[in-house]
Design brief:
alpha+beta, 6-stranded antiparallel β-sheet
């Protein structure tokens, strides 16, 4: 017998979320992390609504929210203005007081049962070497970042565009910078002959983060980050540099997400331009996805092909998001070539304001990605009993749907609670309306295969209008697996399908 059911490599937000979700589902795990995870430069700028739904389910949303408080910076400016002859504009949500990536890691960490610090991963058979100790596990999950050792040993390859741009991120303290930015905004773009980048207010007072984007052939080791701050602001400003990251913008997605007992998630599975924390939030949903599947295997009710569907369902989502994020970045980079007049004449001011409006328009979608949280679906998955496709997935829009593969639309119950708070940890059969069909055949078929199914009655007229069908089977990840106006004629086949009993692919 192996020592632990699941071994997680990597203790960032994705690995921590996986550890917590497995624990919430009663699955012991061991997480190994080789660093103290203290970030010198803030990463990610948004915890998405979907991630907060996961955190609410896991009981940590109330801890994460205070650490992601908003500053008094406005969410939009009535018109983009010029700052130090640099074009700026903002139509963004207000900022967190600290890095969301750090907030997630520090929030989840105390709940993780076991953490170790390995020196290396020894092989693909789910073992690691930590000093002289060998750990044997049923499953290995690599949440170990862009240079993932687990991905390398899995034999998966990153495919896509290896270099979109070079970048330098500079985290610094500069209280006086507030005097240069008017109106006071969260995100200020600088576009002139000397600089192309964005400066983000971290705490709304003295802490700032500047991302400077450079041509693909730039050797960023030769660039002084202090000079980049001056170029972005347009003049010298007193500052103290707190941390520097030199990195490459990419659009890469792994060609495989797993095999047998080894899987990857988060940056180990995909790398793209960091827009609105999309990489972290996508990884958090991947962790939640893997958690319920691994828990099903651990409990003994999963079919032999359940885990095959992890890649089938999640990889297309990552591909779509990677193209969207890269599209935003490339559109902004293209605007950097726009010619503007850099004097303070009426024409010069007008030309910069015109560019600022174009920047705000190009950048807006990363700050309202409602489709990223709620709109993607798993239509065509072998775990679903499809009857029609959900609305087309688009990052910036969301149309609620009860089609199999879609997220269960939100519903507030008569007592004021959310329907999500009433769902079971495994499958939940919703009985909609005042006189729904008998759930007995479905429940008996599930019991024969030891698949846990809770029943939730929703008799209200609002539920009927919202959900349309009288019966809906909801998965542990709040995705709709099946819906119908009556009990299926072959409930055993339905249960086999949703648990991965049928061959996938």
């Amino acid at each position: 017998m192996n020592e632990v059911p699941v071994l997680i490599v990597g203790g960032g937000p994705v690995g921590m979320t996986l550890a917590l979700d497995l624990g919430w589902r009663g699955v012991p795990c061991l997480m190994v992390e080789e660093t103290d995870r203290i970030l010198t430069v803030p990463r990610a700028n948004t915890v998405s609504a979907r991630s907060m739904e996961h955190f609410r389910r896991l009981g940590i949303a109330q801890y994460a929210r205070p650490d992601c408080q908003r500053t008094t910076r406005p969410t939009s400016a009535t018109a983009p203005v010029s700052v130090a002859r640099s074009c700026t504009g903002s139509r963004c949500p207000p900022p967190p007081k600290s890095s969301p990536a750090q907030v997630v890691a520090t929030t989840v960490r105390p709940s993780n049962p076991r953490i170790a610090s390995p020196s290396s991963i020894s092989n693909r058979s789910s073992s690691t070497t930590a000093a002289t100790r060998i750990v044997h596990a049923d499953f290995l999950v690599g949440c170990d970042g862009g240079n993932s050792l687990v991905r390398q040993q899995l034999g998966a390859q990153l495919t896509g565009t290896d270099t979109v741009f070079q970048a330098v991120s500079t985290y610094f303290r500069a209280p006086a910078l507030n005097e240069y930015i008017r109106p006071r905004t969260w995100m200020t773009w600088s576009m002139n002959r000397d600089a192309l980048g964005v400066t983000i207010a971290i705490d709304g007072q003295a802490l700032w983060l500047t991302h400077t984007f450079l041509p693909t052939d730039t050797d960023t080791d030769l660039i002084d980050p202090g000079t980049l701050i001056t170029r972005a602001v347009g003049s010298e400003v007193p500052h103290e540099i707190l941390g520097v990251d030199r990195w490459t913008g990419r659009r890469l997605v792994a060609d495989r997400y797993g095999s047998d007992r080894v899987f990857i998630a988060g940056d180990a599975a995909h790398l793209w331009i960091p827009m609105a924390g999309m990489g972290m939030n996508t990884g958090i949903s991947e962790a939640a996805h893997l958690a319920w599947m691994l828990a099903a295997v651990h409990a003994g009710w999963a079919g032999p092909r359940l885990l095959d569907a992890y890649e089938i369902e999640r990889r297309p989502v990552a591909e779509a998001i990677s193209r969207f994020a890269t599209g935003i970045g490339e559109a902004l980079l293209d605007l950097g070539d726009t010619e503007v007049v850099e004097d303070d004449s009426p024409f010069g001011i007008s030309s910069r304001q015109q560019l600022g409006r174009a920047v705000a328009a190009a950048d807006a979608d990363q700050h309202k990605p409602i489709g990223l949280s709620f709109g993607y679906h798993y239509y065509g998955s072998p775990l679903l009993a499809d009857d029609q496709p959900p609305p087309e997935f688009a990052i910036g829009t969301y149309q609620p749907s009860t089609a199999p593969g879609a997220r269960l639309p939100r519903l507030t119950l008569a007592d004021g609670t959310s329907v999500y708070d009433r769902l079971g940890r495994d499958f939940t059969l919703l009985r909609v309306g005042p006189d729904p069909p008998d759930p007995g055949p479905i429940l008996r078929a599930a019991a024969e295969r030891a698949v846990p199914v809770d029943v939730l009655d929703l008799p209200s007229e609002e539920a009927v209008e919202r959900y349309e069908k009288l019966l809906m089977l909801v998965r542990p990840d709040q995705r709709i697996a099946w819906r119908g106006a009556a009990t299926p004629t072959q409930p055993a086949l339905l249960i086999d399908r949703i648990r991965g009993g049928s061959r996938v692919g």
